[in-house]
Design goal:
heterodimer, A: about 50% helix, disordered N terminus, B: alpha/beta, Quinone Oxidoreductase, Chain A, domain 1, Rossmann fold, 7-stranded mixed β-sheet, 6-stranded parallel β-sheet, 13 helices, 18 strands
């Protein structure tokens, strides 16, 4: 029922939390013991300097809390990047003072720069994730189930003929049987592209299960299983579909991943609903006002309604 | 063709739109001869139901003549005179097999929207928001009827349009509300709301054996129709008398055996109770104003049934769950499973047991629909039910 979180997302989140703790610790030190911080970084503990350190400490604590409030948001990390720039400028300014310890200030500046790089990397990755850019090695797993008011044999028979797929799978344009467990698929992709693959059935048990996987050189490498089980008390047939998409490779792979990442779960849910509509009622019902894309009033050309709903006549 | 379109809150216009065409093999096209404005259309008119879009064709109570059928329709042919149920049902899914037609699992193309609001999707409904399918409605010259081999019922020539039109919604709706009360000999039923559905719920309660039926409203002309035409034994104007005291007096302190809410989400109540919901809905802290429902629960005798025929769309608060639990009340509700009732209720009309046309107060042309909405919504000119003839 879900697309599982990808491990790399968690790494970035862990880095963000680490930087959050760093913010809190540094902030507490600057706020509570500015004299000791001044000694460590090698500046004279004048009142103005100490007040500035306290102010920076308050800023660090605010940034740390913001990170923990939303560890997947990029904005708190960007605020840390800006803070790092201010810190660096301040340290450079102090190093011009005659009574500063240049060596200690040098070490402090290098440390701030190092943390600044981490902040920058983390902020950018979080931003990419939020924008939906597929991380390079994402693997997507999707599962959905529906129940049809039909016998297992009927449901299985309809599914097992892959040539039926374009009728209920919104993006599948055609399926051609190649013989010997193999089939050729053409699937529409964003921006008017078409992707293709050959698939083979790796396991098939009558009225029970079909498992398939793509052959080498598929545009979208994936494997899938569909299981058919009788629902209790003569409630028909449960159909469970599981799909696994391999890490996409190359630019084409990235754009396809983008397509499926949008909501592979919801797409499968909708396709299974259409499968149920078609097998149970013999057609996919159409309304004039599909979703909220046009008003619920008759159309001059029925094809307009079909293409919005993605139903082939 | 001309069609009545929703153009925004309290804005309805009759405009030119394309003629409907067959989209699927089980469709039919009906030339509409009579269509009505439903009380539930007023919830759309007043902007209480989400998922409307400017230009939506309204109307879910209609009848007419079949002019075209899709390739898979064997039960109808051109020239048949039919009444069309307001929910759209495939007849094949497990809910349809259980005769729960308004829960059809296949007839809502926008099911994903309904699932977000209600958990699962019910059936599609003609002209009743995109949540319920985005189907063009029947306050028009023609309508496309999906799954036409399941819903429309042929009606005999000797019955007039006005006698059978309400098989599409309000007669089955009032009847199902009364049936849900599981009426026993001697029962007293109280009905909140003496609009068209309330009137037919009162009449249906008597058809199902109720001893006494009490109608509750605030408009004298509606209470008069309830007494004189629907046959209510007594009526209560809650703006003039204390509702609870009156019900106690009329029921010997027992309370009504079952209560029917035929009001829905735009309920009114005098004083603080009514003001509470007006403020809450204005601040968007609740979506519906359930004044009638709260009263129907509080006034129902312990162990009785509260039957909810009125439409609710979203979320209520100050809902007296404690009364339901501690007094073993049963709540029954649902959009009407119209297909289940069309045949037996047509038989009752044919046998002369009831003529539901007694609720009609206004007859207009389709072009006058905006005026019909206006007077029905504002309860002007004694308006109880508007029937339009395209």
């Amino acid at each position: 029922m879900n697309s599982r979180a990808y491990p790399r997302d968690r790494q970035v989140e862990a880095l963000a939390r680490g930087l959050g703790w760093f913010s809190l610790a540094l902030g507490a030190a600057e706020l509570l013991a500015p004299e000791r911080v001044a000694a460590v970084i090698g500046v004279r503990p004048q009142r103005r300097t100490l007040n500035l350190l306290r102010a920076y400490g308050a800023r660090e604590i605010a940034a740390g809390l913001a990170i923990f409030a939303a560890p997947r948001a990029a904005a708190p990390l960007w605020s840390r990047v800006a803070g790092d720039a201010v810190d660096t400028a301040t340290l450079l300014g102090w190093s011009a003072d005659a009574d500063s310890d240049r060596q200690r200030l040098g070490v402090a500046t290098a440390a701030v720069a190092g943390v600044g790089v981490l902040d920058l990397v983390c902020a950018r990755q979080l931003q990419d994730q939020a924008a939906g850019a597929p991380p390079v090695s994402r693997r997507v797993h999707v599962e959905r189930v529906t129940t049809l008011n039909r016998s297992v044999e009927d449901v299985y028979r309809y599914w097992a003929d892959f040539r039926n797929f374009p009728r209920f799978m919104r993006h599948v344009e055609s399926v051609e049987l190649l013989g010997g467990n193999r089939s050729h698929w053409r699937v529409s992709a964003p921006a008017g592209m078409t992707v293709q693959w050959d698939a083979e059935i790796v396991e098939q048990r009558d009225s029970e299960l079909i498992a398939w996987r793509t052959l080498p050189n598929a545009d979208v490498e994936h494997s899938g299983t569909v299981r058919f089980t009788p629902a209790p008390g003569a409630r028909g047939t449960e159909v469970r579909v599981a799909l696994d998409f391999a890490p996409p490779a190359g630019r084409l792979g990235r754009s396809i991943a983008w397509l499926f990442r949008k909501d592979p779960d919801q797409q499968l849910h909708e396709d299974l609903r259409r499968f149920k509509q078609l097998v149970e009622s013999g057609e996919i019902p159409l309304s004039e006002g599909f979703m909220l894309w046009r008003p619920g009033q008759p159309v001059a050309n029925p094809e307009d309604v079909r293409s919005l709903a993605g139903v082939r006549s | 063709m001309k069609a009545t379109c929703w153009m925004g809150t309290q804005q309805v216009q009759v405009v030119d739109v394309p003629d409907p065409q067959i989209l699927n093999p089980r469709d039919a096209i009906v030339r509409i001869t009579a269509t009505a404005i439903c009380g539930s259309d007023l919830h759309l008119y007043n902007g209480f139901i989400p998922g409307m879009r400017r230009g939506d064709v309204l109307g879910h109570e209609f009848m007419g003549e079949v002019v075209e059928v899709g390739s898979a329709v064997r039960t109808l042919k051109s020239g048949d005179r039919v009444v069309v149920p307001f929910p759209i049902a495939c007849g094949n899914c497990s809910q349809c097999e259980r005769e729960m037609y308004s829960l059809c699992e296949n007839s809502n193309p926008n099911a994903v929207m309904a699932e977000k609001l209600w958990g699962y999707s019910p059936a599609g409904i003609f002209g009743y928001s995109h949540l319920l399918g985005g189907f063009a409605g029947g306050q028009a010259e023609y309508a496309r009827v999906p799954f036409a081999d399941v819903g429309p019922i042929k009606v005999p020539a000797h019955l007039s349009d006005e006698q059978v039109l309400f098989l599409s919604d309000i007669f089955p709706t009032g009847y199902m509300a009364a049936e849900a009360c599981n009426i026993q000999p001697g029962d007293t039923i109280a009905v909140w709301g003496c609009g068209p559905v309330g009137q037919l719920a009162i009449a249906s309660a008597y058809l199902l054996g109720a001893e006494r039926v009490i109608g509750i409203d605030r408009f004298p002309y509606r209470l008069r129709t309830a007494r004189e035409r629907a046959g209510a034994w007594a009526t209560i104007n809650y703006e003039e008398e204390d509702l609870h005291e009156s019900l106690m007096e009329l029921t010997g302190g027992r309370g009504p055996d079952s209560t029917i809410d035929a009001v829905g989400l735009e309920g009114h109540a005098p004083g603080l109770h009514g003001a509470y919901d007006r403020v809450k809905t204005a601040l968007m802290l609740e979506t519906d104003r359930p004044a009638a429902l709260r009263q129907a629960i509080m006034e129902c005798r312990s162990g009785g049934t509260v039957s909810v025929a009125g439409v609710y769309g979203g979320f209520l608060d100050s809902f007296p769950m404690g009364a339901i639990v501690n007094r073993s009340l049963t709540i029954k509700s649902g959009q009407t499973h119209v297909h289940r009732y069309t045949r037996p209720l047509l038989d009752r009309i044919e046998r002369g047991e009831i003529d539901p046309s007694f609720v009609i107060t206004h007859r207009m042309t389709l072009a006058e629909a905006p005026h019909g909405y206006d007077i029905f919504s504002h309860k002007e000119d004694g308006c109880l039910k508007v029937v339009l003839a395209p």
